[in-house]
Design a protein that fits this description.
single chain; 9 strands; six-stranded antiparallel beta sheet; elongated
């Protein structure tokens, strides 16, 4: 997201301080780029890097930051998990209603409506009135939401939108945003995001009880 001060880094939207906990990803980066039929120059340009910097990532001379991984995963049509070389067990394409267990987070109740570990995470969410309405979220990825019941107040940057049943929104989640139910009965929505599995995952739904916002 932010540029790095190191002379080896090229300024661009994908740059940010390195995440020390990330394992080596060099073995996967080159193979996944080639699988996507992208040259080094084309992939680097799409990620906001120089070819030299991307080459250093592919040879293990530098470690990518989390925003870099998100950008490269999107460009290569894959997931951060695959970039990190993680092996994910085969997942069912269908999620049955009976298997959707409710989970509480920061006053919201949500049900996992898709398989875990995918490039998109799908949720059905109940947002009570007055819950998390003052929390501003900013994180990598994209979000799409669809209002099922009630009215939703969505603030994107400096603009506030009122959404009713059947309305939807699709936005870059680096745009500061707030989500709140407008009616005392709360609201229910479908929610899809591309945050993947990252240390910033709690920013998507807000803090769980006991966490500091």
């Amino acid at each position: 997201m932010e540029s790095m001060s190191s002379p080896e880094a090229e300024p661009g939207p994908a740059d940010a301080p390195s995440v020390d906990a990330l394992p080596a990803v060099a073995p996967q980066l080159r193979a996944l780029r080639r699988r996507a039929s992208l040259t080094l120059e084309a992939a680097a340009r799409a990620a906001g890097l120089s070819p030299a910097h991307l080459s250093r990532l592919e040879t293990g001379q530098r470690q990518p930051s989390l925003p870099m991984l998100l950008a490269l995963a999107r460009i290569y049509g894959t997931t951060v998990s695959e970039l990190l070389g993680e092996t994910v067990a085969e997942r069912d394409a269908v999620v049955r209603a009976a298997d959707m267990e409710p989970t509480a987070a920061g006053g919201w109740t949500y049900w996992q409506a898709g398989s875990a570990g995918r490039g998109m995470q799908a949720l059905r969410v109940q947002v009570p009135y007055g819950s998390q309405g003052d929390i501003v979220r900013v994180h990598p990825g994209e979000e799409w939401l669809y209002v099922l019941r009630g009215r939703l107040r969505l603030r994107l940057g400096d603009t506030t939108h009122q959404l009713g049943p059947g309305d939807s929104a699709h936005f870059d989640s680096l745009t500061p945003h707030r989500i709140a139910a407008q009616d005392p009965d709360g609201t229910e929505l479908l929610f899809v995001h591309t945050l993947l599995q990252s240390p910033t995952a709690t920013l998507c739904l807000g803090p769980t009880p006991g966490e500091t916002p």
